[in-house]
Design a protein that fits this description.
Layout (H helix, E strand, L loop, with lengths): L8 E2 L2 E2 L4 H7 E4 L11 H11 L4 H14 L15 H13 L5 E5 L7 H17 L3 E5 L3 H4 L5 E5 L2 E6 L1 H6 L4 E6 L3 H12 L4 E3 L2 E6 L2 H11 L6 E5 L3 H9 L13
Parallel strand pairs: 3-4, 4-5
Antiparallel strand pairs: 1-2, 6-7, 8-10, 8-11, 9-10
Helix pairs in contact: 2-3, 3-4
């Protein structure tokens, strides 16, 4: 797809004008499975190596290195169709790293993985970043994964709405986030606006506010509107709160994601 405007550089190469050079510098792990399940782990990597121009002993050595790195050396000769979801994901990762890329692109790589497999994947990504100096660019809809990133861009409707480290983005909110449960949240919002001069919002039938010294405010607001508030929660700003402030709605989860 040719861009309609703008430019993008990876390792100083223009992605539109120098696509072949860009492809040599990047490894990609797609969200959808891209391995051939009828081939063995070793055969999948050999095939990728041939695509990148690797041959002979050099290729065999690199395949062995990567299978060892992702913990699949003992299953090298087995077909990928016999692997668990986590093992297939590790093979995808080995495939993306086989040609020594400088930049690794991953599209929601933990989709379908159990908690243990997710933890193992993230530990390996940290090794790539810290020890092998690979730049890891990842897309995720899981905020706990976004928290692990050194730098974060939040997208909404095709545009960047926030950019910075997780700590920087959360510090922009400041104070505390208050959630009030009420039978008539819209009515409570009007009362808070009139009596306290604040601008709360309603989200998922809860009244939401961002305010300094939230623990003190909770006492005041419950006393000010007796009987209207059924529940209260106070927490420090999270990345989801950053997303809510920038977009006006919650981040979609796997269970609630809209049809594309």
């Amino acid at each position: 797809m040719l861009p309609s405007g703008g430019s993008a550089l990876i390792m100083s190469h223009d992605v539109a004008r120098e696509p072949a050079l860009v492809r040599r510098d990047i490894g990609v792990v797609f969200q959808a499975q891209s391995i051939d399940v009828k081939l063995s782990a070793e055969e999948n990597l050999m095939l990728v190596g041939h695509i990148y121009g690797l041959r002979g002993a050099k290729l065999k050595k690199r395949v062995c290195e990567m299978l060892n790195r992702v913990g699949l050396a003992d299953r090298a000769k087995e077909k990928a169709e016999t692997f668990s979801g986590g093992m297939r994901r590790r093979l995808e990762l080995a495939k993306g790293l086989l040609h020594h890329p400088s930049v690794l692109l991953l599209d929601e790589p933990t989709t379908g993985l159990d908690p243990g497999a997710r933890r193992d994947l993230w530990q390996y990504l940290q090794i790539l970043r810290d020890e092998e100096r690979v730049t890891v660019l990842i897309t995720t809809h899981l905020m706990e994964e976004a928290e692990r990133c050194d730098r974060l861009a939040i997208y909404a409707n095709g545009s960047v709405v926030a950019l910075g480290t997780p700590a920087e983005l959360k510090s922009e909110i400041g104070g505390d986030v208050i959630l009030l449960e009420a039978e008539q949240p819209e009515s409570l919002v009007r009362h808070i606006q009139q009596a306290l001069g604040l601008r709360p919002t309603v989200m998922d039938n809860q009244v939401r506010l961002e305010i300094e010294n939230g623990h003190r405010f909770v006492t005041d607001v419950v006393e000010a509107f007796p009987g209207e508030i059924q529940g209260v929660s106070v927490h420090k700003p999270s990345l989801e709160d950053v997303f809510i402030r920038q977009t006006g709605h919650r981040f979609w989860t796997e269970e609630k994601a809209p049809d594309e």
